[in-house]
Amino acid sequence: MMDLDHTDIEILRLLQTNAELTNKEISYKLHKSVATIHERIRRLKEQGYIRRVVAILDRKKVDKSLIAFSHVLLKDHSANTLSSFEKEVVKFPEVMECFQMTGTFDFILRIATTDMDAYHIFYRKLATLPNITTVQSFFVLSETKSDTAYPI
Amino acid sequence: MMDLDHTDIEILRLLQTNAELTNKEISYKLHKSVATIHERIRRLKEQGYIRRVVAILDRKKVDKSLIAFSHVLLKDHSANTLSSFEKEVVKFPEVMECFQMTGTFDFILRIATTDMDAYHIFYRKLATLPNITTVQSFFVLSETKSDTAYPI
DNA sequence: TGGAAAAACCGTAAAAATTCCGGTTTTTTG
DNA sequence: CAAAAAACCGGAATTTTTACGGTTTTTCCA
Asked: Where is the signal peptide (chains A, B) (predicted)?
């Protein structure tokens, strides 16, 4: 599950924070040839260590100023209730992430909307899904840290 | 704040889900020349719509099987207490995200660790920061949806 | 322990993508 | 409606990626 050597780890560290680095730039930093770096990255993708490469946008610039975390509690935890909730919730474009959780509620959703009016519209749609007991909403005041890189 | 035309929006949509598309591939999809796409992307970066391009790793493959959301409540909300907490919490490599929140607690942290032992070690370090009242931990059982793309 | 097999590495050349440039068409604006 | 600005384009120059053949290093087991 982790047969990566030092060079692999360093490549992943670099690409996690900046995937626009060229193979040449990486080869300088890691004291390897361009061909070696290229082959390493090819394998890291093929083996699934790198799932995808994406552009991260400025959420305020694209008019998603309101981020909410919504805690959802379901009526019961039968396989049917769980999977039908999951099936429906992923359809909402506002839902960027959805995690099933341990603890006093069942799911955490990360919601991105333009403003509170848009969140309200979403909330009404969400809260009327079958088998939902409660939805608690918490809103982001400010981002202290916002990273997609895993600490490796 | 959003003087983007249809072509800009489509470029951002595409790059949010796959930043490895070549300018040529994008130019096919959007019926524009390679030069035009190139100039558009250059401007989207320069103007800050695209903050960065990153590789997204498979967290289990890089041995971060345990993801937690930790809710932190502070003793008070003086500028000093808030900013010194923020200053310290961002130093933890396990903390991928930190948001100041509205509601019944002050911060949400997203924590990535190898296992519960590693989380426990982190938890003890976190809980001993000054001015913390409570830390509540919730753990991810499964990922239903996991997206970095904003709905635009 | 020695030697074969496998893996990692490298330089170079070919292919492809990015970047730059000059000029044309379309849109905006006073 | 004419001038200015913006968007667009093809093609050339530059850079990067990708493929290839061969060398060095590491692994492993007889």
From this structure: none
Question: Which residue among A54, A98, A152 sits closest to B19, beta carbon to beta carbon?
Answer: A54
Rounded to two decimals, what is the model's pTM?
Answer: 0.94
Whole domain around residue A76: which residue ranges? 66-139
* Domain assignment of residue A60, yes or no: no
Q: Give the count of domains, chain A.
A: 2
Chain A hits for B105, Cβ within 8 Å: 138
- Predicted local confidence at residue B3, as pLDDT: 85
Domain shared by B83 and B116, yes or no: yes
- Using C1' positions and the CA of B34, the closest nucleotide is D9
The predicted-structure confidence for A108-135, as pLDDT tens digits, reads as follows 999 999 999 999 999 999 999 999 999 9
Chain-chain contact of A152 with B60 (C-beta, under 8 angstroms):
no
Whether residue A135 sits in one domain with residue A75: yes
Q: Is residue A113 part of a domain?
A: yes
Tell me which residues of chain B have a pLDDT lower than 50: none
**Contact state of B53 with A18 under an 8 Å Cβ cutoff:** yes
Residues A123 and A83 in one domain: yes
Same domain for A93 and A33, yes or no, is no
Residues making up chain A, counted from first to last: 152
Establish if A1 belongs to a structural domain: no
Q: Is residue B73 part of a domain?
A: yes
- Bridge partner list, A111: A68, A95
Write the DSSP assignment of A10-59 as a string of letters.
HHHHHHHH-TT--HHHHHHHHT--HHHHHHHHHHHHHTTSEEEEEEEE-T
Are residues A33 and A88 part of one domain? no
Q: Where are the alpha helices (DSSP H) in chain B?
A: 6-17, 23-30, 34-46, 79-89, 116-127
CB-based contacts with strand D under 7 Å? A 22-25, 34-35, 38, 42; B 5, 7, 31-36, 39-40
A89 contact residues in B (CB cutoff 8 A): 144-145
